[in-house]
C-alpha cells in the first residue's frame, strides 16, 4: 500500500517537473484607452492542442504552468493602445528568451511563436 | 551674441530630426499627435516645441516650450513606475515656456519665463476616454481581426502540418507583424495570402462554438486585408482624428526681464481652438480665438515705467491644405482678424485701437520642422508687415 502511494507520488512529481512554464507580461505606457486580447494556443489539428484567450485593459502578468516540453505554441495579441505596449514572453522557453516586442500607439494584431525547452 | 542665435537655429534644426528619430518618443506619441495641426501644437506643445521668431525683423526671439511630461520623459529611468492617470494628466496639461529676445545685432535684451496651463483639453486621446459607441466598434473590429488571424494560422497548419513549424513559421508570422506595423499587406507570405483568399476561413471560424461573427464579416475582413486595408486600423484612425478636432483652451502667464530698461514685464494670454465639421473625409478646419494683455515699459520715457499696456484679441480660421495618407498635416493656412488696443499711454500720431487682417501659411519642410510665414495687413493705414519664423515640434 505504502509502496503504491510512493510510486503515485513519484509519478506526480515527474509529471509536475515535466510541464513547462511560460510567463507573458504586457505593459502599457499610458493608463487610458488600452485593450489587448491575448491568445495562447496550439492548433486542434496537432498533438496536444492548447487554447487560452483573455482580454486585458491594463498591465498584466499571466503565468502558464501546464505547457508540454519541446512543443511550439502560438501567442497572438490583438488590441489597441493610444500610447505604447510592450509584451515580454519568458519562462521555460528556447531562445530567444525572453522574447520581447514593443508596439507604438495603434490598433494592432501580432503573432509570435515560442518553443518550450526539454 | 549673433553666434547665440546661430547656435539656437542649429539646435532647432537638429532637434527637429531628433524629434522623429528618437524611437521612444515616437512610439509613445505617434498616433496621438499625428493628426494634430501645427497651429494646435503652437498653442500647447505635445512634448517640446522650439522656435526662432521674426527672423527677418529687428528683434528676434528664441522660444522653447516643453510640457512637464516632456521634461519627465528625458530624466525618467527606463524602469521607473508607470505614471498614474492623474500624474500623466497633470504633466501633459502644463508646459514650461522659456524665451530669449535679441535686438537687431542679436544682443539679448529680454529673458522670459512662463507656463501654459490647459483649462480644457479634449484633444488628447491619452487623457480622455474613447466614446463608448466608438469603443464598441473598435473592440468588435479587433475581435474580428483576432479571429481572422487565428483562422489563417489554423488553415495553414491544417494544410502544411509538418512544414509549418520552426523558422518557416516564425518567418511567416513576421510578414504578418511587419504588415501590421507598416500597414502594408502587399508583402504577406504567400501561405497567408492563399489562406485569406481561400474562402476556408469562414468555415473554420463558424466551426468554433464561441464564435459570434457571421461568414460575410470574415470574408469581408479577409478581402480588405488583401486590398491593403485593415478595418480595425481604419476605425482607430478615425477615432484619433475625431479627438484631434475637439476643443483646447489654454492660459499663459509670463514674466519677462527687460534688460535694457532693467525692469519686469508681465503678460497673460489665452488661446482657444476647436475643429469645425464632423466630416472626416474633408481636411480639417479649426476656429481659433486668442487674446493677450501685457504690462511693459513705454519706451518713450527714459525711466522705468509700466505705461505700455497693449491688449489684443484675434479670431481666425485655420485650414489644413495638405496632409499625408495618415492625415498628418503638412501645409496649413490661417486667416485671422486682430484688434489691438492700447490701455496705457498712446503715443502721439498712433491709434488707440487698430484692426488688422492677417494670414499665416505654415509649411512642413523637413521632418518636424515647420516654416510659418505671417502677413499682417493694417487696412486703415494700408500697411503690410511680414513675419518669418522657423518652428520645430520635437517628439512629433
Topology summary:
The complex is a heterodimer of chains A (118) and B (396).
Chain A: H1 2-18, E1 20-28, E2 35-42, E3 50-56, E4 60-67, E5 72-91, E6 99-115
Antiparallel strand pairs in A: 1-4, 1-5, 2-3, 2-5, 5-6
Chain B: H1 2-21, H2 23-34, H3 38-43, E1 48-53, E2 60-67, H4 68-75, H5 85-93, E3 94-102, E4 108-121, H6 132-160, H7 166-182, H8 190-198, H9 200-206, H10 215-226, H11 231-244, E5 248-258, E6 263-276, E7 285-295, E8 310-323, E9 329-342, E10 353-366, E11 369-378, E12 383-388, E13 390-394
Helix pairs in contact in B: 4-5, 6-8, 6-9, 6-10, 6-11, 9-10
Short recap of the structure:
Chain A has 118 residues and is mainly beta. Chain A has one helix spanning 2-18; strands at 20-28, 35-42, 50-56, 60-67, 72-91, 99-115. Chain A is elongated.
Explain what the structure shows:
The complex is a heterodimer of chains A (118) and B (396). Chain A is mainly β and 118 residues long. Chain A contains one helix and six strands, in the order H-E-E-E-E-E-E. In chain A, strand 5 (72-91) and strand 6 (99-115) form a beta hairpin. The mean pLDDT of chain A is 89. Chain B is an alpha+beta fold and 396 residues long. Helix content of chain B is 36%, strand content 34%. Chain B is built from eleven helices and 13 strands. In chain B, helix 6 (132-160) crosses helix 10 (215-226) and helix 6 runs antiparallel to helix 11 (231-244). The longest helix of chain B is centred in the middle third of the chain and has 29 residues, at 132-160. Chain B is elongated. Mean pLDDT of chain B is 84; it is low at 18-28. Chain A binds chain B through residues 27-33, 35, 37, 39, 41, 43-46, 59, 72, 74, 76, 78-80, 82-84, 101-113, and chain B through 26-32, 82-85, 88, 125-130, 138-139, 141-143, 145-146, 149-150, 153-154, 157-158, 161, 165-166, 169-170, 173, 176-177, 180-181, 230, 232-233, 235-236, 240.
